[in-house]
Amino acid sequence: MELVPTPLLPDGYKVPSTRWKHGSARLRELLAEKPYVFGPGIYDPHGAELLMYHGFDAVYFSGYSFAVGHLGTTDMDLYSSVEIADGVRRTVSALRKFQLTMAMGDPDKGVDPIHLEIPPVVADMDVGYGNIFNVQRTTELYVNTGVAAAHIEDQVMPKRCGHIAGKALVSADEMVGKLRMMRNVADDLGHRDFIVIARTDGVSASEAPESTRGIKLAIERGLRYMDSGVPDLLWCEFPTAARGPVEEFTAEIRKRFPKTRFAFNYSSSFKWQNERDPMTFDELGQMGVGFLFITLAMQHAAGYGMSEVLTALKERKEQGYIELQRREWDEGRDVPTKSHHLFTGVPYHHHVGETYGARGMGADEGLAKELVV
């Protein structure tokens, strides 16, 4: 890892040189280097920072997770393009800031700097939130956030989660028009590396212009989208964890387009723990899956973790919280959020504030220093 200075850190502190490489260029490099790129699903900057701290390849900004985390509701087109684009923007921005704060460490407490690569962010664009002109606007919003890639699906509006019944599809021609618009907007903005992911919900759609249904419809749609020359990755949303349809879809697409790379949702909707022989990440990579993600990974983890501590607080009052702190500060565990001041960059703000002469910031602020845990 090459480390270089940045004017946003005091003298002597450095960041990885890849800081100035656009996320889309970085994601293309990873796709070329690795059997597959994996990104757990998040819905906010805090979750993305945790993924970055733990060294994951990429961050997946999940629409369903955003619906839960932003509105407390389900994934049925209940938020707008501007809302989710702003969520993506804040996430990309937070990762850049987090790299700086971790590269600072805490000099006053002898905490060494940590040099973290910024993972590329892949974002959910649902159906583009309208017609091709909505897609035009949304793509511009997304590309200007610094996001590496986005996926768009072939459902009608209002769309619904791929694992909720009653999905209906727009025509393949309309979907191809949306894909072309995504590509052309990104190119017009000078971001030719921007990665376009085409998704079909054909396997479980109940309504579509075609007479075919099921896996055959999904294959037909996948081939139509690849014929357009636009998709960098092709995603088929499957209704179950069964191997057969995944193997059939990837094999049939690759008969005509041998170099196709796929996106695959290792969905939180499936009870993987009940599968006798669940597909592994490595097996999916061998099928041609380039980008692998778990849409609601962090939402489920957050729900589980918060429920555990809330149950403990309800049953054991202050002891429930004390037990949490013991686990957080166990020397054998790497829990970066145990010091919320360090994780959020209080030392960085003090030292940089002092460098810039900001009032109320810096080493001379004794009370502020005392507050750093």
Structure notes:
- The chain is α/β, with parallel strands linked by helices.
- It folds into two domains: 22-295, TIM Barrel; 339-373, no CATH class.
- It has 14 helices and ten strands.
- Strands 3-4-5-6-7-8-9-10 form an eight-stranded parallel beta barrel, surrounded by nine helices.
- Helix 4 packs parallel to helix 5 (132-145).
- The radius of gyration is 22 Å and the shape is globular.
- 40% of the residues are buried.
- The model is unreliable at 365-373 (pLDDT under 50).
Brief description of this entry?
The chain folds into two domains: 22-295, Phosphoenolpyruvate-binding domains (TIM Barrel), CATH 3.20.20; 339-373, no CATH class. The protein is 46% helix and 12% strand.
User: Which of globular, elongated, flat, extended, rod-shaped describes the shape?
Assistant: globular
Counting DSSP E segments of at least 2 residues, the number of strands comes to: 10
Q: List the helices and strands in order.
A: EEHEHEHHEHEHEHEHEHEHHHHH
How are the strands of the biggest sheet laid out side by side?
A: 3-4-5-6-7-8-9-10
Architecture of the largest domain in CATH? Alpha-Beta Barrel
Give the SSE map.
Layout: E1 3-5, E2 14-16, H1 23-33, E3 37-42, H2 45-53, E4 59-61, H3 63-71, H4 81-104, E5 121-124, H5 132-145, E6 149-153, H6 172-188, E7 195-200, H7 214-227, E8 233-236, H8 243-256, E9 262-265, H9 281-286, E10 289-294, H10 297-316, H11 318-328, H12 340-344, H13 346-356, H14 366-371
Parallel strand pairs: 3-4, 3-10, 4-5, 5-6, 6-7, 7-8, 8-9, 9-10
Antiparallel strand pairs: 1-2
